[in-house]
Amino acid sequence: MDKDTKIATRQSFGEALKELGEKNEEIVVLDADLAGATKTNIFGKAFPDRFFDMGIAEQDMIGTAAGFASCGKIPYAASFAAFATGRSYDQIRSSICYPKANVKICGTHAGVTVGEDGATHQMLEDLSLMRGLPNMTVICPSDDTQARWAVEEVSKFDGPVYLRLSRAATPIIYSAGTKFEIGKMVQFGEGTRATVFATGAVVSESLLAQEILAAEGIDIRVIDVHTIKPIDREMIIKCAKETEKLISIEDHSIIGGLGSAIAEVLADEYPKKLVRMGMKDCFGKSGKAMELLEYFGLVSKNIVEEVKR
Amino acid sequence: MESVDELKEKALKVRRHIVEMIYLASSGHPGGALSITDILTVLYFKEMRVNPKNPKDENRDRFVLSKGHASAGLYAVLAERGFIDVEELKGFRKLNSNLQGHPDMNKIPGVDMTTGSLGQGLSAANGMALSAKLDKKDYRVYCALGDGEIQEGQVWEAAMSAGHYKLDNLCVIVDNNNLQIDGTLDKVMSPYPIVEKFRSFGFHTIEIDGHDYEQIIKAFDEAKTIKEKPIAIIAKTIKGKGVSFMENQGSWHGKAPNEEELTTAMKDLM
Predict the structure, then answer these.
(1) Does the distance separating the beta carbons of B117 and A99 come in below 8 Å?
(2) Of A106, A237, B75, B252, which sits most exposed with the smallest number of CB within 10 A?
(3) ipTM of the complex as predicted
(4) Which domains does chain A carry?
(5) Which 8-state DSSP code applies to residue A110?
(6) A15, A58, A125, A205: which is the annotated catalytic residue?
(7) Number of domains in chain B
(8) What is the H or E stretch that residue A186 is in?
C-alpha cells in the first residue's frame, strides 16, 4: 500500500470512464448536474455527443438510461450515491433491475467520508438498497487501481450494476493494472487471530490496523470485499473456519450492507459470531472525512481495539 | 392496413379480446385499456414501422406504454398484429403465462419497454429517442401516458428533458379519459390544463378526440412534420369506451366482468 499517494475513487472513475469511452463507442454517460463532482465531466469534455446532463432530475436520468440501454447503448448514470440510489430507487427497481437493463449506476460521495456536506449527502444505506434488488451486481472499489478496473470490467457484461465510489482521497493499495474478478474477494495475509472484512474507503484503514497488530505479534488477515453482490461465500466460510474472530467494517450502515451480507452467509453455512463495524443505525454529520471516520469509530485504532477485545 | 373501416373492425376485435382476457383472468384494467384502444390500433396497424417477424429490428419505431396497466390493450393489439399468438391471450395474468399483469419487454415480443410503476415510461422513451439521434437513425418513439399518471413528478422531469433535447422524433399521447381510481381528475388532483403544461415544456401540442380515426391519423401525420420539438397529442377519450356499462365509470378501472357482464359487453362489441 502506498500511503502517501492518495486518490479519490471518483477521480479514478472519471478518468477510467474517458478511457473506456475511447475504446467503446456504445458508452454513454448521464449525470444530474454534478458532473464536476462526480468527475463525469472528464468524459463529457472528451465526448460531448455521448454525454447527457439531465439536470437535477435523478429519476428521469435513471429512466432515460433504461431507454438508452434498450437501444444497445451502455449507459453510465452518475450522481451522489444518496440521490443516484435513494431518490430514484423505484426507477432502478422497475426500469433497470426488473428488465435487466444494461445500466451502470455510479454513486459517488458514498458514506460519511463525504465530509462537510453532512447527513443529507452522506449515503449510508445504498448498499442495503441496491443489494436487495434482484439482477443487481454491487461493486465498491477500495482504491484507484480497483476503481479503474471496475469501470471497464462492468462494461463487459450485460446487466445492471451499482458502482459505489468515494469522495475522499484514499491510499493506493494495488499496483497499477492489477486484475480482479467480480465476486472474488482479495485476501491480505494468512493471520488466524482475526479476519477483517472491509469494503471501499476503509480497506486501507484495515490494512493499517493489520500492520500495527503485526508489530505487536498479532497476525490477522484483511479481506477486501470489492464485490458486495454476488458475495464470495467460499471466502467467508474459509475465513470463518480458519480464524478466531470475524469483523466486518464499512463506511455504511451496519444494517443491510457488507456486515449483513457476511452475516447471512454465516447464518446459512457456518454460524459464528461477527462483529459489525460501521454506522450504527444513525445518520452522519458535518466534519472532515478523517475526523468523521474517527468520530464514528471506523479507523485503524478502532479495528486494533476490536481485534484485541 | 389503411382504411378507417378496417381499422375500426380491428379495434372492435381488440376490445373483445380485452374484455375476454380480463374476464378469464378475473383481474385486470378494462377502463384504461378500452380508452386507448383506438390509438393503439392506429399506431400498430397504420402509423408505426414494426415487423412482427423481427420484433427487435433496430430500425423499428418504438412504443412505450407508460400507463402499463392498460397491458390488456397492448397485448391484444400485438396479438392481432402477429407478434404473439391470439391463443396466448387466454393466459393473461396467469401463472406460467408470459403475459404479465404489466408489460414485460423480456417476456413478450413487441413490448419495447417494461412498465407498470407509473410515471417512468416517458424517461425511457426519451432515452430511445436520444439513441436514435446519436445513431442517426430515423425511427420514431411513441409513448402513451395516462392522464392520472401525469400527476407523477417524473413525467415533468422527462417532459423537460424532451423539450430541452428537442426530441422531434418523440410523440407523446395523453389518454385523457378524466378518471383515475379515486375519482375524476379534478377531484383527486387536477393536472389541468394539460395542453398548456406540455406546451410550456417545449412541446408541439395537438388536441384530438381519441376515438375519431380521422383525427388520430391526422395528428400522427402532423407530428411527423414538426421539427426541433417533441410532440404531445392530448386525446380526449372515454374510459371503458365501447362497453355500455363501463363507459365513464371509474369503478371499471381495475375490475373484471362476471359472466353476465361479459355477455352484455360482447353484445356491445358486435
Answers:
(1) no
(2) A237
(3) 0.97
(4) 2-171 (3.40.50.970), 186-308 (3.40.50.920)
(5) B
(6) A58
(7) 1
(8) strand A186-188
